[in-house]
């Protein structure tokens, strides 16, 4: 009788074990990480990529170190919120211009086309 009870208990335990494991099937754990950035404005879609034509410029105008032809352009900001999520108002704006630079002068932008000696 004791042997039957032990056999019965062992059979029940072995039979229940796969059922308990089956109840966890289809479940899992997903861990995500990332960064939420706070931005005060967006750039108007027409201003994201701009090409600013300079036309024909004389060499003497370009040869003045530190001086160049001034060509105004605009970057329109839209959907601006002056209030920060953490309170207070935005105090400054940072704008970064990026592009391909000259190999031997990484402080100036590379010029597309046949022109040389300027950036």
Question: In words, what does this structure look like?
Answer:
By secondary structure, this protein is mainly alpha-helical. 21% of the residues lie in helices and 3% in strands. The protein has a domain of 81 residues. The chain is built from 2 helices and 2 strands; from the N terminus they run αβαβ. It has a two-stranded antiparallel ribbon with strand order 1-2. The radius of gyration is 34 Å and the shape is elongated. The model has no long low-confidence stretch (mean pLDDT 72). Its main location: other.
Output the keywords.
mainly alpha; 119 residues
Helix/strand order: HEHE
Name the overall outline: elongated
Strand portion, in percent?
under 5%
Main sheet properties: 2 strands, antiparallel
Q: How many strands?
A: 2
Number of helices: 2
Which structural class should the secondary elements be placed in? mainly alpha
Overall radius of gyration:
34 Å
The residue-averaged pLDDT reads 72
Q: Strand order across the biggest sheet?
A: 1-2
Give the % helix.
10-25%
How far apart lie the N and C ends?
A: 97 Å
Low-confidence stretches: none
What's the arrangement of secondary structure elements?
Layout: H1 2-22, E1 42-43, H2 59-62, E2 77-78
Antiparallel strand pairs: 1-2
Summarize the structure.
Belongs to the fimbrial protein family. Helix content is 21%, strand content 3%.
């Amino acid at each position: 009788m004791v042997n039957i009870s032990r056999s019965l208990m062992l059979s029940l335990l072995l039979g229940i074990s796969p059922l308990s494991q089956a109840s966890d099937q289809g479940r899992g754990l997903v861990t995500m990480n990332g960064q939420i950035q706070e931005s005060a404005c967006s750039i108007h879609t027409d201003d994201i990529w701009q090409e600013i034509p300079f036309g024909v410029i004389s060499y003497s105008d370009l040869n003045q170190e530190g001086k160049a032809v001034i060509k105004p352009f605009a970057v329109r900001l839209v959907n601006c919120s002056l209030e920060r999520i953490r309170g207070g108002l935005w105090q400054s704006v940072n704008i970064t211009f990026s592009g391909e630079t000259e190999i031997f002068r990484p402080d100036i932008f590379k010029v597309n086309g046949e022109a040389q000696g300027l950036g």
